[in-house]
Amino acid sequence: MSESSANLEPEVQELLVAYLDGELDAETARSVEERLASDPALRTEMQRLDRAWHMLDALETEPVDEQFTRTTLEMTIAAAQEELQQEQAERPRRRLRRALLLCAAAATAALGGFFGVRLALPDPNRQLLEDLPVIENLEQYRAVGDIEFLRTLHQERLFADEPDEGAAP
Amino acid sequence: MVVSESSARRYALDPDVRLMLEVRDGNAAAFEELVVRYQDRLVTVLQHLVGDRDQADDLAQDVFLRVYRARKTYQPGARFATWLFTIANRVAANALRNKSRRREVTLQPKESGSLGARPLDSMILASSGQMPARQLDKAELRDIVRQALETLNERQRLAVLLSKFEGMSYADIAAVMDLTPQAVKSLLSRARCNLREVLEAYFEDGQPPAPQKAETTEATDVTQPHKEPA
User: Fold this and answer.
1) Domain membership flag for residue B230
2) Within a 13 Å sphere around the CA of B26, how many CA atoms are in the beta-carbon half?
3) Number of domains, chain B
């Protein structure tokens, strides 16, 4: 390492490089310029850095030839064709998947509708089932004639040991 | 990658981003235009990264192919050049890692130019001992500078190439290399000091540059953002 570089703090070196790269804000750039004006060693260091940087101009490479461009575009066309073939191969599978999804959605909608209607509308058979014990014993109830009398008998549990075939209506 | 609407609008001002958006919409001529605009720049950077022109050509084609394949999901989240060189960086890193695995990395460049196998040594032997006064022809100078560049590690070299040949800002280099701008500032500072020392040592004392140990990089998915410590 040369002496001038070794003597510089890394922060100062960074500032110098950032100054050369135009990466400093106006205020910091001004302070670097003031330091450069008063410090010949710093000025020399900056000139050396700048000179080495400009030597990199010698690294320019040969431009690519037409063959490179043509091959690149041919590779791209081949990739595009491959993509297209892949899409075409996947199309029937995608259609089948879509059809299955549609069927599943239709079945779900049908089931949902069925249960929805069932819940929303009263079931005409439900009342009939609830009244079944009365219907089955209708003749006997008619023979008694008075419903209040039957209720009284039920409350007094006079026939508690008998199966409760027909709860008091 | 999720890109905000405002950032997409901002980067849509970049003419190359607009071309890439046309590629996304199926315009093949726009892709050809991008290839023509960037092929030399891309090959230059890749050649100095991998140290071999043929491999640089292959890698550049690979990069263009990846750009084309990514067109359908392209969203302008950066300048086009930044995006392109981010892909190139990862492609080159993967290539160097594979090369290193196969134990094919050599510290000497494959092409030795006009000066034989060890151009600097040859020149030292041939030199008069008054290097600053010595006039070098273009090919000699190129060989020396290339050797000096090869003394840098991969990250320093990439930062130098993007700054020198692409004129990228620290922020753009940071985006390409997945670093912070402050880390790029330090990286470039060290790189430029190293270059200065190597080149001056050669011109003043005739000392050939000693190559640094090559860095290896983990394999990455080149189309996805990746994180590295700054």
Assistant:
1) no
2) 2
3) 2
